[in-house]
Design a protein that fits this description.
Layout lengths: L1 E4 L8 E2 L3 E2 L5 E3 L7 H9 L4 E5 L14 H19 L6 H16 L17 H19 L4 H12 L9 H4 L7 H8 L1 H10 L4 H9 L20 H15 L11 H10 L7 H10 L8 E4 L4 E7 L3 E6 L2 E9 L6 E4 L2
Antiparallel strand pairs: 1-5, 2-5, 3-4, 6-7, 6-10, 7-8, 8-9
Helix pairs in contact: 2-3, 3-4, 3-5, 4-5, 4-10, 4-12, 5-9, 5-10, 8-9, 9-10, 10-11
The chain binds fe (ii) ion.
Length: 340
């Protein structure tokens, strides 16, 4: 398995994950041979990278902690919620709650699970996949911080809906290009609009997450410029998860970072912008080198990461796929650097 730029994918490779449309339909199934016609179609959908298998017999998982079933359902529910917001209709609280229960079940199923995948978003599906990733990462962080089931559910709901207010802002759900000053003022409004919409159907705690996810420890955030002691833990968690997922995403207006670079940057901005305990929880919740990464061992040998958890990492020899090396988390120092 490899994570490759589209231009390096050849027609003897196979898709390692399903491609899901914004309406929640599966457009291409896992295991599909990537013919020139499919690659052309994916390029038109603005995919820049994909996970691929070099042999149809490979079965490494690159769907992350969420099953395709829940991902598809959640995208449908989020899309429907955004339409309701635009039409000034109340949110469907039971439906959102139901899909979040499914998400929690998936994410918390395995004790040693981490957020182990690299972004495959496109400008078109950015908001959907970003909202879902932030929910998954936030729940994993909350678990590291020993929060209880009820608190994890509030965090998952708040994270899933954190950018709902963007439905009011035309520029935000179109392709994100360099923003003008007026656009920036409008974008900042999404926290307030999101709060108002969510509060009508959910608890104050859940709505506050959307309201406060851009607040920062030193008071430099928005909309209120709250300082650390006044920001609830749930909002700090979602704020860190949101920044992380934005940093590692392929967006047209910013250079994308890899997980290790983003973690380094967030650590450098702590404690000024981000709470140190919350950043530590992020480091434990996401893979430093997610599956599909190519790393170089201290001896100089290159390996592909094919599985990763809180305790271990499995590294594949790219020249001989059956040659696997299992590295306990205590031996991560054997990795000299990330190559790709
Ligand atoms: Fe936001």
């Amino acid at each position: 398995m490899k994570y490759l730029p589209l231009k390096e994918i050849t027609e003897d490779m196979f898709l390692a994950h399903a491609v899901i449309g914004n309406d929640g339909r599966v457009l291409l199934n896992k295991g599909t041979r990537l013919t020139p016609a499919y690659l052309h179609r994916l390029a038109r959908m603005e995919y820049t990278h994909l996970y691929v298998y070099e042999s149809p017999a490979e079965d490494w998982d690159c769907t992350g902690p969420l099953s395709d079933k829940i991902r598809v359902e959640a995208i449908r529910v989020l899309r429907e919620s955004l339409i309701r917001v635009v039409e000034h209709k109340p949110l469907n609280e039971p439906l959102i709650s139901f899909v979040i229960e499914g998400l929690l079940k998936d994410v918390l199923q395995q004790e040693d699970r981490v957020f182990d995948i690299i972004d495959v978003k496109t400008p078109d599906n950015y908001l959907y996949n970003h909202s879902l990733n932030v929910a998954v990462i936030s729940v994993l962080m909350g678990r590291q911080l020993k929060l209880n089931r009820e608190e994890l559910k509030e965090i998952a709901l708040g994270a899933f809906l954190h950018d709902l207010g963007k439905a009011y802002i035309k520029t935000a759900i179109k392709k994100l290009q360099a923003l003008s000053a007026t656009d920036t003022v409008q974008i900042k409004q999404h926290t307030i609009r999101g709060f108002e919409t969510i509060r009508a159907s959910f608890s104050l705690k859940v709505a506050n997450i959307a309201y406060q996810h851009h607040e920062r420890e030193d008071g430099s955030g928005y909309p209120l410029g709250l300082i650390g002691v006044d920001i609830p833990l749930a909002s700090k968690i979602v704020g860190v998860a949101d920044s992380f997922d934005a940093m590692v995403s392929n967006r047209t207006y910013k250079v994308r970072l890899w997980n290790d670079q983003a973690l380094k940057e967030l650590t450098a901005e702590s404690p000024a912008k981000y709470n140190p305990a919350v950043v530590r929880a992020l480091r434990e919740a996401v893979a430093l080198y997610p599956v599909g990464s190519v790393v170089q061992l201290t001896g100089g040998e290159q390996r592909v990461v094919v599985a990763v958890s809180t305790t271990k990492m499995v590294l594949q020899n790219p020249k001989q796929l059956s040659d696997l090396l299992e590295l306990p988390v205590t031996e991560f120092s054997r990795i000299a650097k990330r190559v790709l």
